[in-house]
Design goal:
The protein has 197 residues and is mainly α. The chain has helices spanning 3-13, 16-36, 41-49, 58-67, 74-78, 84-94, 101-108, 119-130, 137-150, 154-170, 177-195. It has one domain (3-195): Hypothetical protein af1432. Helix content is 70%, strand content 0%. The longest helix has 21 residues, at 16-36. Bound molecules: fe (ii) ion (2 copies). The site of one fe (ii) ion (FE2) has 6 residues, from loops.
Length: 197
């Protein structure tokens, strides 16, 4: 896959800050892979291009969704900030010619996550939040600490969900059941894994 082509497209279609964030997510995914002792080029590619549709205006996102029958949930339609994930997977497929389902799913689910995320999906989800180019250093450190302490990504991802849920509560916003479902499932997975140790 042509990383330079992806970077050129991103530089032309994202704001400077979003481009920096994309490079940061790419670097973070490489660091996470190194920390976990795994090779996962798919996660690294998906991390780089995960926000490829982030700077499209809302009316363009909605046009692409309706004209191409892009599958979006009710929750995503109620929260415009999440629509760039399903549209991003569509852009990856049509502009970058990516057919690999693992990469496309990691882009598709990088905002809300889902139950039973794959390793690739988890790396991209976490790289998006942990990258140090544009994210707050204290949050990045907190997530790296969780990752280092437990040696797996679930505890760090749980912290991301906690922060999201707290923010929604603080702002009197609705917490969608799917967010709670994913959070619950991660908590149960972590508890189960500790019992079997
Ligand atoms: Fe995003
Ligand atoms: Fe992002």
């Amino acid at each position: 896959m042509n990383i330079d082509f992806f970077k050129t497209y991103l530089r032309q279609n994202l704001t400077n800050e979003r481009y920096e964030h994309s490079l940061g997510a790419y670097e973070a995914s490489c660091e996470i892979c190194k920390f976990l002792g795994v090779e996962n080029e798919k996660a690294e590619i998906a991390s780089l291009i995960h926000d490829c549709a982030k700077c499209l205006p809302n009316d363009e996102l909605l046009r692409l969704i309706s004209q191409n029958n892009i599958d979006v949930t009710k929750m995503e339609l109620e929260n415009f900030k999440t629509l760039h994930a399903p549209v991003g997977a569509y852009v990856a497929k049509t502009v970058f010619d990516i057919e690999d389902k693992e990469i496309l799913d990691a882009i598709r689910f990088h905002t809300i996550g889902r139950i039973n995320m794959t390793q690739t999906e988890k790396i991209v989800f976490l790289a998006d939040k942990i990258e140090s180019r544009t994210r707050r250093p204290d949050i990045s450190k907190l997530l790296w600490d969780a990752l280092s302490e437990h040696g797996n990504m679930d505890d760090a991802i749980i912290l991301c969900y906690k922060a999201t849920i707290k923010k929604l509560i603080d702002n009197d916003l609705v917490i969608h059941p799917q967010t709670v479902e994913v959070y619950d499932s991660l908590i149960l997975d972590v508890k189960k894994s500790r019992l079997t140790l």
